[in-house]
Amino acid sequence: MDLTRPLFVLFGDSITEQSFFPGGWGVALANSYSRKADVIIRGYGGYNTRWALFLLDLIFPQGNAGAPSVVTIFFGANDAAILGRTSERQHVPVEEYKENLRKIVHHLKKCSPTMLVILITPPPVDEDGRNEYARSLYGEKARELPERTNEMAGIYAKHCVELAKELNLSFVDLWSHMQETADWQKKFLRDGLHLTPEGNAFVYKEVISILHSSGLTPDTMPFDFPHHLEIDGKDPAKAFTARK
Amino acid sequence: MDLTRPLFVLFGDSITEQSFFPGGWGVALANSYSRKADVIIRGYGGYNTRWALFLLDLIFPQGNAGAPSVVTIFFGANDAAILGRTSERQHVPVEEYKENLRKIVHHLKKCSPTMLVILITPPPVDEDGRNEYARSLYGEKARELPERTNEMAGIYAKHCVELAKELNLSFVDLWSHMQETADWQKKFLRDGLHLTPEGNAFVYKEVISILHSSGLTPDTMPFDFPHHLEIDGKDPAKAFTARK
């Protein structure tokens, strides 16, 4: 089916996959663009950028009509998993992470040069929160050393921001911005990594602010079809033919 | 872009449009089918079935690849607005309502004979709730007589169910089922017509129960791409080529 509205695709890892949970940032976006744009999720829990590359041709085929108007790219939380610790199979070296992001952006821009691509850095990591979470799952068997650190996530975030600046892309420096709020560890993160409702609201505000400044303001975007008050009860066809 | 998952479309009036509000039945469906199916909303506040017919060719073009797997059709609340009262421009006679629904179903089945089409009746109407809502908006100027009645909504619901049985379609008799719960007026409806969070949960449960009994159970549907635990860190390509 052809979509009658601009399409926004949220592409990323579990933090994107979970954005349609109740209170999620994806839900909030979909609701803000009600009758103006469609929002769909391409979030893959546990994925890093290396694995994301395998999806590109399938999710975003070249030469295909109806390319998305907006794509958010939100990876890095898994790439930044630390070598030699429990999540090392997800680790991707930071230079490769940056090059993988570049490949994703190039692919998308080939799909549609006018596409608004928004890079989002990984969020900060609350190491105490990660440890508590591990203990809640594994008790005394939980690993001693954190499998992700805030410092490491910051290095990946820095590379993400660098790439966005190099390519002149919009970006959300989530790692830095979240840490400007007191008690970000518990306020925004529920297990040291994934978002609380307030963390989701934070991401939503950052993303919609970029959409607004790019001219994609819901209030000024057209409805796909007439508002019901524009329809003349005695001659409904008029409202529909007038828009063709 | 091609969708890599089955597509579910929710087609209807404001009760569908608002299904992506926080706590909405559309959000709950989208979340249940996370990584299994896409859920998009085609809800048009204030629309009746007569106006919906103008949208069919545009939303659901014939001969177009990628027809939805599932479409819910949820109209009637506006068609049942009472002649001679404040919402009469939205009124559609009940026989025409039934024939319009038939046209919508035929159109969809021509798009894809295997599409699961689910008819949903209008919800019951809490006339006191409607009156309170009108007074909250207009004070003493509010209309004396309700513009919608529960009895009238019931007549439309009955015709919707009749059509579903005639055409051997799945259906949700929302009008009847909601009234089986004590205090349905306040429990399920927030202004006498639109849904509370509990009303949304009710619609969600009814719809997902039909999806389950039609074999569309999220647990048994495939992921569009491998779960990250299926990916060999040393040979990631394997997991992706194996699925082609």
From TrEMBL, chains A, B:
Keyword check for Cell wall biogenesis/degradation: no
Output the CDD domains linked to this UniProt entry. Answer: Isoamyl_acetate_hydrolase_like
**Pfam family of this protein, just one?**
Lipase_GDSL
Listed A to Z, the keywords are: Hydrolase
Superkingdom of the organism of origin: Eukaryota
According to the UniProt entry, its GO molecular function terms are: hydrolase activity, acting on ester bonds
> According to its UniProt record, which protein family does this protein belong to?
Belongs to the 'GDSL' lipolytic enzyme family.
Would you tell me the protein name for this molecule? GDSL esterase/lipase
Q: What is the lineage of its organism?
A: Eukaryota, Viridiplantae, Streptophyta, Embryophyta, Tracheophyta
